[in-house]
Amino acid sequence: MQGVILHRNHVKTAGRELAPTHQEMPGSKHNTALFGNTDAGQSAAMAKIATLTHLHKDQGGVKIAQDQIYFTTTPPGRSIIALHQLQALCLQIAQRAVFCRIPCLLGGDEMFLCAFELLHSPSLMSANFDSALSAAHAAAAAQNYPAGALYVVATPIGNLADISLRALHVLNLCDTLACEDTRHSQTLLRAYGIDKSSAQWLAVHQHNEAEAAHEVIRRLQDGQRVAYVSDAGTPAVSDPGARLVWQVQSAGLRVVPLPGASSVTTLLSACGTPTHDASGFVFVGFLPTKATERQHAVQALGEEARTQILLEAPHRIEAMASALAALGTRPVTVGRELTKQFEEIATVAAQDLAGWLQGNAQRTRGEFALVVHAQAQERAAGSDSDRLLKILMEELPLKTAVKVAAEISGEAKNGLYDRALALKQASSE
Q1: b/e sequence 316-350, b meaning 16+ C-beta within 10 Å
Q2: Cα-trace Rg, the chain
C-alpha cells in the first residue's frame, strides 16, 4: 500500500489524494472509523487519514507485502482473521467496517488497531484463501487443459469456500475470462488472489451473448483457453451461457464443464420427500412477471405432478407467494440466501407461504429458490392394478398374488402389498 508509513508501533498514511471513484473519509484523532466501510461488490473503501493510529505494544508484527497490511499476531483469546484479502470480505460482509479502533483490551488507555472480530459469522474464519491457489495447483495441475477450449466454470452462490480446486486452477490458468458482469467477477477472483489484465476480461451477458460468442470463438481459434463464469452458480442454468456453448460447439470447438455450486441441486438435496419419487423433477426457473401470465404459469404448475424447481428475486417473492396459494396444501420448500450467513430453509403448504414470509421482516430479503413438491397420486378404485390383484388373490395367497402382480405391472411390491391388504379388508366388511 503506497503511502503507508511505519514508525515503531505506529501506522499512518501519507494522506495522498485518491481516485474520485473511491470513498474518502477525513481522519481525525478521535474518529472511530479508521479505514471506513467496505464497498460491497466493488473494491474496499479507501480512507484519507492524516493522523497516527497507535498500536498497542503487544500488537506488534505488522508487515507490508505488496498492497496489503498483515497483522501477524493477535490478542490472547480473541477470534480475528487476517485481512489479507479485503475483497473476500466485501462479498461476505456488506457495508461493515473492516478495521476499527476499539478500547485497548490489554490494559492502559491506548487505542489499537484490530481486525474485524468474528462475533456473528464464525464461518468467515475460512475467508483466508492464502493457500487455496497452491492447493489447487497441487491437486489439479497434473490434468490436461487443452488450448482452444471453452471452460464453463461454476462459482459459489454465496459462500466463497464453495469453489472447487479445479475451478481455481482453471481461472488462474485461462487466457481470457468471459463473464456475465466483469466488475462482479473481478471482485470474486481477487478474493482468491487471482488478477487478470484488462485485455483478458470479456463481458458476455444475456444482451450480447450471441454477438460476443464470435469474439470468444476467435480467441479459441487463436489457441486461447477461455473460461466462462456467470455471476453465481453454474452458467447456462437460468444464467447466460447456453447460447455461447451452443455456438462454440457448432464451430467444432471443445467445451469443458467444471461442475460446482447450483441453487437447484443445493435446495433439492435439503428439501426431502415423504415417499420415494422416481419421476424426477422439472426445472421451471423464474415465473412471468405479469400477473395474468404468472397466474397461467401457476395453473400449469398445479397440473404437473412431478417436483418442480422455481427461482425468484426478493422484490417479487411476495407476489409469487400469493400466486402459489392456488396450489392449496401442496408442500413447497423455500430456500432463502442458500449457503450464506442467514440461510433459511422451510417447508410449508403453498397456501401458507405468504404468511410464512410475513412472519419475519427479514424473510423477503435475499435470493430465493423454491421446490414445489410432487403431487401425491391417489390410486383410483377399480384401477388396472386393483383388478389384477383381485383376480390373483382369488386363486393365490396374498404374498404370491402381490409378487405376480408386481412382475406383470412393474409396480413396487410394497405399494401393491398395502393395496392388497386394503382390498382384502374391504372385501371382508
Answers
A1: bbbebbebbbebeebbbbbbbbbbbeeebbeebbb
A2: 29
The three-state secondary structure class of 295 is helix
What is the residue extent of each domain of the chain? 1-128, 132-261, 264-372, 384-428
Note the pLDDT tens digit of each residue in 21-76.
333 344 444 443 444 443 333 333 333 333 333 344 444 444 444 444 444 444 44
Cβ atoms < 10 Å from Cβ of 203: 16
Other C-beta atoms closer than 10 Å to the C-beta of 220 total 22
Check if the beta carbon of residue 233 is closer than 8 Å to that of residue 155.
yes
**What are 48's strand-pairing partners?**
26
So what's the pLDDT on residue 276? 66
Distances 172 to 64, 141, 188, 228, 236 between C-alpha atoms, Å: 24, 11, 12, 12, 22
Give the separation between CA 34 and CA 10, rounded to whole angstroms. Answer: 13
E strands along 14-166, which residues? Answer: 53-54, 62-65, 68-71, 100-103, 111-114, 149-153
Question: Which tens digit of pLDDT belongs to each residue from 289-306?
Answer: 999 999 999 999 999 999
What is the spatial distance between Cα 409 and Cα 416, in angstroms, rounded to a whole number? 10
- Cβ within 8 Å of residue 257, ≥6 positions away: 151, 152
In angstroms, rounded to a whole number, what is the distance separating the alpha carbons of residues 346 and 65? 46
Which amino acid is located at 26 in the chain? P
CATH topology for 264-372 is: 3.30.950
pLDDT of residue 127: 56
- The domain covering 132-261 belongs, at the CATH homologous superfamily level, to Tetrapyrrole methylase, N-terminal domain (3.40.1010.10)
What is the grid cell recorded at 284? 421451471
Q: By the 8 A CB rule, do 103 and 60 touch?
A: no
416, 405 Cβ separation under 8 angstroms:
yes
For residue 202, the one-letter residue type is L
